[in-house]
Specification:
about 350 residues; alpha/beta; Rossmann fold; seven-stranded parallel β-sheet; five-stranded parallel β-sheet; hydroxypyruvate reductase (NADH) activity; oxidoreductase; Hydroxyacid dehydrogenase
């Protein structure tokens, strides 16, 4: 149980709703970061050195070296779904719980994926620019494509992929899916979704939405060779992890005209698990404003959803500090290897 005489220290690396500070503050000493910016890696290490609990977000990287500087740490609660930026084995070996949030991110991210595809297909950003530049009403320009009656491929048949498929069922589209994992995850199937292998999906699809997580098997899963098998003019949307797609290959295929457009909410430079990750989005992609549409990792950026995500992470921290199995645990730590908690 939490020792109130020696309140445990909980460090939050990024801004959270005030309610979260209140919930944790009733039982813990909270060290928060309520700015809009990420702390430097050195500052996170300094703050976490005496932490019992840690709430982390996508920009954070938690590896063995970091954890060795946190001898009191009992739980790392991720306010995230994909946790490729956290070393699970290092947490387990050091007796530290690792938790994540699963379902709460699915619907808002799926919704954004469909929005990005529509925005790309219908030239919404270019249309907005034209109106602001004084375009005098209707002209026979900016003709795009439609989702209705098209074939849409979904790469990644987990919760997010199935969530995207459910949202697309109203468009009377043919839905194809594949999953790079050896065994597809359990869960509710979408009746209208046909499972095929990746080569067939790419050859048949008018649009492809990437929903796959990042691991060794999905790094640059969509490389130049595979992307070249798409139909000429096909659209590509990435809401999974940036490095599942080879962004430089995308730039080349946009330049040649083989790809019709590329939209993304996730980018290779964000993937902290990759020591060779690029420093930024390829400049060529940034310059192709007429055929690209980018958002700054807004998948779960819905106020009500973010609050629930933070509540889940806060609850997991309190459960772990109480000696319980925390909600969303993704490991089974060796609790006997840690030092005794303070108090």
């Amino acid at each position: 149980m939490i020792n109130q005489a020696h309140r445990p220290v909980v460090v939050l690396t990024h801004r959270v709703h005030p309610q979260i500070l209140d919930v944790l503050g009733e039982r813990c000493k909270v060290i928060a970061n309520q700015s809009d910016d990420s702390l430097s890696a050195d500052e996170v290490r300094r703050r976490a050195a005496e932490a019992d609990g840690l709430m982390v977000f996508m920009p954070d990287r938690i590896n063995a070296d970091f954890l060795d500087g946190c001898p009191q740490l009992q739980v790392v609660a991720g306010a995230l779904k994909g946790h490729d930026n956290i070393d699970i084995e290092a947490c387990t070996d050091r007796g530290i719980w690792l938790t994540r949030v699963e379902d709460l991110l699915t619907e808002p991210t799926a919704e954004l994926a469909v929005g990005l595809l529509i925005g790309l297909a219908r030239h919404i950003v270019a249309g907005d620019r034209a109106v602001r530049a004084g375009k005098p009403g209707w002209r026979p320009t900016l003709y795009g494509s439609t989702l209705v009656g098209s074939t849409i491929g979904i790469v990644g048949a987990g919760r997010l992929g199935r969530g995207v498929a459910r949202m697309l069922t109203g468009f009377d589209a043919r839905l194809l899916c594949c999953d790079p994992a050896p065994a597809s995850p359990a869960g509710e199937e979408v009746p209208q979704m046909e499972r095929v292998e990746l080569p067939e999906l790419l050859e048949r699809s008018d649009s492809v939405i990437v929903c796959a997580p990042l691991d060794d098997s999905t790094l640059h899963l969509l490389d130049r060779d595979r992307l070249e098998s798409l139909r000429p003019g096909a659209l590509l949307v990435n809401v999974g992890r940036g490095s599942v797609v080879d962004e430089r290959a995308v730039a080349g295929l946009l330049r040649s005209g083989h790809l019709g457009g590329f939209a993304a909410d996730v980018f290779e430079f964000e993937d902290l698990s990759r020591p060779d990750r690029p420093a930024a989005i390829p400049e060529e992609l940034i310059d192709m404003g007429d055929r690209t549409l980018f958002t700054p990792h807004l998948g779960s950026a819905v106020a009500s959803a973010r609050l629930r995500i933070e509540e889940h992470a806060a609850r997991a921290i309190l459960q772990a500090l109480d000696g319980q199995v925390p909600d969303g645990a993704v490991n089974q730590p060796q609790r006997d290897v840690r030092v005794s908690p303070r108090g």
